[in-house]
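Tutorial, part two.
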Amino acid sequence: MTSASLAVGDVVAERTVHLTRESLVRYAGASGDFNPIHYRDDVAERVGLPGVLAHGMLTMGLAVETIVDWLGDAGRILEYGVRFTRPVVVDAETGADLTVTAKVGAFDDETARVDLTVAFGGTTVLGKAQVRVRRQP
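Running the prediction step on this input gives:
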């Protein structure tokens, strides 16, 4: 990732991740977040949600993981932030597909800002999803 090879607007990575209810249970176990809105339809409905939701931090983690292969080293990530704007509803039968596109938003001699577009069902679910990474010499 040198100045000569990097341009604003370049797509550096993209992928689609399929989430299932099993994905949510596994994440709950790993994270310790056992809020029932992430696995019980009746609870999600009772609190006015459109269905069982993926954990926000799971969505955030899957999004940033998209650029790790391109970076070659996750240790080059210096800063990462998002705004949670819409939920990811994970259907019991069909699951949910999360699409992530990573584009160069800005760069200087030492760092680059990668802008992530994270969508579910054609709707952006993370706003201002930006990763600042250390550039290689």
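The longest strand covers residues 96-107. In part three we will examine how such features are distributed along the chain.
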